[in-house]
Amino acid sequence: MGTFVYSSSCLSWKNNLSRQVISSHQVVPHGVTEKGCSRIKAAACSKEDVHVNQDCEKFAGSWNRRSTLVSGVSLISSVLLGFPGEGYAVVKQGLLAGRVPGLSEPDEEGWRTYRRPDDKSGGHGVGWSPIIPYAFSVPDNWEEVPVSIADLGGTEIDLRFANPKEGRISVVVAPVKRFSDEIGEEATIEQIGPPDKVISAFGPEVIGESVEGKVLRAEVAEHSGRKYYQFELEPPHVMITATAAGNRLYLFNVTGNGLQWKKYYKDLRKIAESFRVV
């Protein structure tokens, strides 16, 4: 990856240099040649020589013909690696999965509300409808954590949040057709099953093992006509809020180690119970 970035920078410099060689009428930004000399001293320039050597003349025409390609490579490297620059500025942020801001400003208690942006990418399969947005609240010091395509949680992990001192959050958004062909496009959590069936079926996907004997609390809440199943498991320490909307099942998971659970339990429970599909 580091080699790719270096190559992109070199191509951009060569392209600028070729423009300077080919036309004396074209304006070259001040400092381009000087910057090139400082980075690749042995390749093109001497200490104070204002002439371009023979090697530069050979590649100047070639890179001029490829100026469009070089610009494209620079743009791609800026976007994929998250480097700031002109290319990054013109790319619509909604296309960058897991990297679109959605946090509100802190309220008077210092809590922020995260709402999944409408234009955030993600869909878990061709043909699926856009994900219905969801929201939850976190203390001011919690931040979004990028989700990798190699994430051990699988492709259905839509979002991660964390605070190293307090705990972690993950949001699983899974198509209900994976569980039942009888559920339509407007699923409800009741259609998927009662609380005991839901936690037995999907709890292992969250904690990686059977939930038998681990469910300390199971409750049903209703907000704006939508039912939410809320569970607390131990061990490991985790709270799961489950609901359904559209053609997807949502599993909102809040977890922490023993010390975090003891010290921040009140806040972690508040986070878990704040989850809503909007």
From TrEMBL:
Localization: Plastid, Chloroplast thylakoid membrane
MF term (GO), any: calcium ion binding
Highest taxon of source: Eukaryota
Gene Ontology process terms (BP): photosynthesis
Primary location recorded for the protein, binned into one broad class: plastid
InterPro entries: Mog1/PsbP_a/b/a-sand, PsbP_C
Matching Pfam families: PsbP
GO cellular component: chloroplast thylakoid membrane; extrinsic component of membrane; photosystem II oxygen evolving complex
Protein name: Psbp domain-containing protein 4, chloroplastic
Higher taxonomy: Eukaryota, Viridiplantae, Streptophyta, Embryophyta, Tracheophyta
